[in-house]
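Before the break, one more example. Copy the sequence into your notebook; we will annotate it together after we see the structure.
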Amino acid sequence: MNAKKRFNLSSQREISKLFKGMLKMLEDMKADHDFHYQKLYENIPEEHHNVLNTANHFTPDKVNWIRKRILDLGNESIRNLCDEADNYSVSFVFNKE
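Here is what the structure looks like once it is written out:
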């Protein structure tokens, strides 16, 4: 396999793991947020629920916006790294064990 191609594929996989991990953290944060907001809804009189709705900043639109930003930044990082790798000559030396 071509060394530069192997380097690019390996780098892409690692960057993908990083932004998939960030997406998982976003899901975890949303679940935690929803859990605590549900506790508020259950313990605050119903006439105050409209105030809770107004304060809820972690809306589906906001989560989708953050998700898109994570994916865009990850894909941009992959493109930039591959473009940068074109400035170098990559080769591997394998050691015999």
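The mean pLDDT is 90. The helical segments are 3-43, 49-55, 60-85. Try to locate both features in your own notes.
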